[in-house]
Amino acid sequence: MDDKEDLGVLLSGQFVGPDECAGLCAEMRAAARYPATVFKKSDYAVRPEVRNTSRVLVAPVWADLVRRRLGEMKPRFEAHFGRPFGGSDEPQFLAYSEGQFFRPHRDVGDGLENQMAARRNLSVVVLLNPGEYEGGRLVLHDMGVAGSRMEIKGRPGRFVAFHPVVLHEVTPVTRGERYSIALWLERPGGAVT
After folding, report:
1. Which domain holds residue 78?
2. Is residue 117 part of a domain?
3. 190, part of any domain
4. Which end of the chain is more exposed for a tag (fewer CB within 10 A), N or C?
5. Residue 21 is part of a domain; what is its CATH number?
6. What span, in angstroms and rounded, lies between the C-alpha atoms of 29 and 179?
7. How many Å apart are CA 66 and CA 74, to the nearest integer?
8. Residue 162 gets which letter from DSSP?
9. What is the pTM of this model?
10. d(Cα 77, Cα 122) in Å, to the nearest integer?
11. Is there a domain that residue 138 lies in?
């Protein structure tokens, strides 16, 4: 990361509309799920003590919609963060049931062993159903100021965009179920720097 890069956050804009949120949440409630993984050494593994959540298998039309919206918003992200972005990773549709969480982590890999994470240049989280659950806050830590902490609950369909080096977590859900989408824009050309 360049020392001049912005570690701030962009918290605005509607990523998906109310009808899309409702339709996607309905599908996520009924869709098949499997445990989400984390990268460990040279492969992905299920580690529920670190990331206790489920990836949800939604219809391809939803992933297409998310990729299209991400492309439409890319110029706005580039203007805000002051750097260019390339393509995107596959979006992750996530369900956090009661008691589930994701411990503090960064979305960048250690060195070059995780090529996918090392290409990440922007993290984006879309919150789909705030108000239908308790807990499950997205918390950003140390964004250029040691000890800083920003808790985000958000609004349905809104996004949070931040540099992937920012330490962040999802606190345990205490009631209900939290639905969100995690996605990343890569460095131009997928180059690792």
Report:
1. 9-29+52-177
2. yes
3. no
4. C
5. 2.60.120.620
6. 9
7. 12
8. E
9. 0.90
10. 9
11. yes
